[in-house]
Write a structure and sequence with these properties.
Layout lengths: L2 E11 L5 H5 L8 E11 L3 E5 L6 H8 L7 E6 L2 E2 L4 H7 E4 L11 H11 L9 H7 L15 H13 L5 E5 L7 H16 L3 E5 L3 H7 L2 E6 L2 E7 H7 L3 E7 L14 E5 L2 E6 L6 H10 L4 E7 L3 H9 L5
Parallel strand pairs: 3-8, 3-9, 6-7, 7-8
Antiparallel strand pairs: 1-2, 1-4, 4-5, 9-10, 11-13, 11-14, 12-13
The protein binds adenosine-5'-triphosphate and magnesium ion.
């Protein structure tokens, strides 16, 4: 398989500003924002990087983008090595940073033209208007960046990352503070870019968003990758489903015969947690009937990314 981004043994410890730490041969324990990260992002994938606040997502992205210096390890983007060819990498990636930073004196159009020029895109090949339209910025073309609302600024940042038609697009929380309509619009557009072959690396706090969009997902916690897999595989790893049995007559107490299951009463009905690899639903249904209860309806609930995320990043009780 070809990888758009390949990361090996990547570590990062931020300097603390204290001389003693700076001079220490080894980083202070627990100060590492990234610890020995290995990550391979298949070419053409829509890759989600998820993790709680402070997990190291932006640090990782900013290192790839050349905005933050790594401490050790290697990063390769479409065959270019970050140490040898950082400018080459910058030309083939588009990055939407988490922080809202814009040139305050430029209008929206000027900002985009400036960056297209910076990347040496000939005027004829520029997609400035297409991008402006896709991001709903038509009304703001001549507006001064300084006067834009937060959500509008975010749109300009996204537009800016797209002007050079990068084969790798990196989005750090691009929909934070963005309204529902743009979110839809933005995802339709990014999905289309992905269909045309662009590799997308996305961090988001909206797990439903990752679940809907991404084909591969990595979960990072305390600077370490704790899971990385195709989305379907990841969703299967919990091996946990729930069987909901609705009853004709609600109950308030569990029949003795059902106590063998991981069962609870939910709104007067029965909810049983089970591992589909260990147990079929037939036995559970029979047990409910044998307990003298009449079943009105049966359904199952699959694990969601949110459950997996919570399960993997839960703090171990001290
Ligand atoms: N410039 C910096 N100097 C020192 N420490 C930093 C700096 N930037 C980030 N850190 C620390 O590195 C760790 C990882 O931060 P990072 O911003 O990468 O997390 P994140 O996963 O992007 O979080 P969030 O979801 O809040 O955006 C945190 O402990 C953070 O405090
Ligand atoms: Mg971040």
């Amino acid at each position: 398989m070809n990888f758009a981004i390949s990361i090996k043994h990547l570590s990062k410890s931020y300097k603390t500003g204290k001389r003693s730490y700076r001079l220490a041969a080894k980083p202070m324990p627990g100060r590492e924002a990234l610890q020995d990260i290995g990550l391979e992002i298949p070419q053409g994938s829509f890759f989600g990087l998820l993790g709680p606040n402070g997990a190291g997502k932006s640090t990782l992205i900013n290192i790839i983008a050349g905005l933050t210096l790594k401490t050790s390890g290697t990063v390769n983007v479409l065959g270019r090595d970050l140490d040898r060819d950082p400018r080459g990498i910058r030309r083939i990636i588009g990055v939407v940073p988490q922080e809202l930073v814009l040139d305050p004196f430029f209008s929206v159009k000027e900002t985009l033209d400036y960056y297209a020029g910076y990347y040496g895109i000939p005027a004829k090949q520029r997609r400035t208007m297409e991008i402006i339209k896709a991001l709903g910025l038509e009304d703001k073309i001549n507006a001064n960046s300084r006067r834009l609302s937060g959500g509008m600024k975010r749109r300009v940042l996204i537009a800016k990352a797209l002007v050079h038609n990068p084969p790798v697009l990196i989005l750090d929380e691009p929909t934070a503070g963005v309204d529902v309509e743009l979110r839809r619009q933005l995802w339709d557009y990014v999905r289309e870019l992905n269909r045309q072959g662009a590799t997308i690396l996305l961090t988001t706090h909206y797990l439903e968003e990752a679940e809907e969009l991404c084909d591969n997902i990595a979960i990072i916690n305390h600077g370490r990758i704790i899971a990385c897999d195709r989305k379907e595989h990841l969703l299967k790893t919990l091996n946990q489903k729930q069987l909901i049995i609705k009853l004709t007559e609600k109950i308030h107490e569990l029949p003795e015969a059902l106590r063998a299951y991981r069962v609870k009463i939910q709104d007067g009905d029965i909810a049983i947690d089970y591992n589909p690899h260990e147990m079929g639903v037939g036995g559970m249904i029979s047990a409910v009937q044998a307990a003298g209860l009449t079943i009105r309806d049966v359904s199952t609930i699959e694990p969601r990314l949110e459950d997996i995320f919570r399960y993997l990043t839960r703090e171990k009780a001290a």
